[in-house]
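Sample pair:
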Amino acid sequence: MADATPVPPVPSLARAREQKISELSQHFANDDLSLDELERRIERVYRAGNVLELDEITADLRSTSQAASAQVQAGRASSRSIAPISGPAQSRMLAIMGETKRVGRWQVPRQLDILAIMSDTVLDLTQAAVGPGITDIHVRAVWTACKIVVPPEMRVINEMHAIMASVTSKAHEMDPPGSQGSGGPVIRLTGTALMAEVKVVVRKRERARDDDDEDDD
């Protein structure tokens, strides 16, 4: 009797989910997906009952990814000849099952969108370049620890929603009574935390430190 044709191993559903989330993250980084669409498709990943259902989640993206990638590369090539006059007006950070940290001297856009899922995210603004007026930081945190570190003179308006989560801020929302207002940058924090911890801490010392150091109140 002839031997049966070997059947290729089927990847476990958990491993296939991880690979699909990684694929979706790459599409998001390439601007193939909006933030809302990324979240909807990640929800479908966790609802999928088999590998075939997972494949359907990105079937429409694979046919257009090459054309979109070519357009992005062409745009990048043309932009190299134009010197930027300021930082970006809008940007985003993505952390899925990983760790993301922004520390040191960096330009904070006027609007920053953060999507963190099962990750550790640190946003340190103590040495960052933040423009005057209100800077919007929109956070969507799911099963995540997210820490935002600010200098003592920076006000933070906390408008986040918490669902089975903890959202705390040690920064002042208003200037002290009787003051004329500092006129410095103000952070407006919006978004939703789901089964996550989001905290704003104030770093009183000016010298740079590791994020593992204890933060001042």
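DSSP finds four helices and eleven strands in the chain.
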